[in-house]
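For the sake of transparency, this paper describes our internal protein records without simplification. The remainder of this section carries one protein's record, kept here as part of the documentation:
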Amino acid sequence: MLTCHDSGEKTDIHISGILDEPFNIRKLTKADASDLFVPKLKDYFERKSLNSFVIKKNITSEHFESFIDVMGEPIADSTDIQSWRLSNQSSCDLDISEVQRFSKLI
């Protein structure tokens, strides 16, 4: 699971489910790379109204690519509940069951 955390001046993204304890994504890269990547990922969370999302390890590459396409659609950037439902319906229509998104809207 990827979860975005704001702690005042700094934003962190934590990954859980791989190790016993959640870990900070900043530990995966050098400081200059994470300083560029983490704010962009935070922006993504905000545009998609996400609290967190989970990608199951058994996801097929076809479903992963389809999920990326769905989340890249302009309607997925909207912050209203109807757009969120349409985005979820798109995932269901494509039979993408290996990804769970948790919205700030619901």
User: Anything to note?
Assistant: The chain has a mean pLDDT of 83.
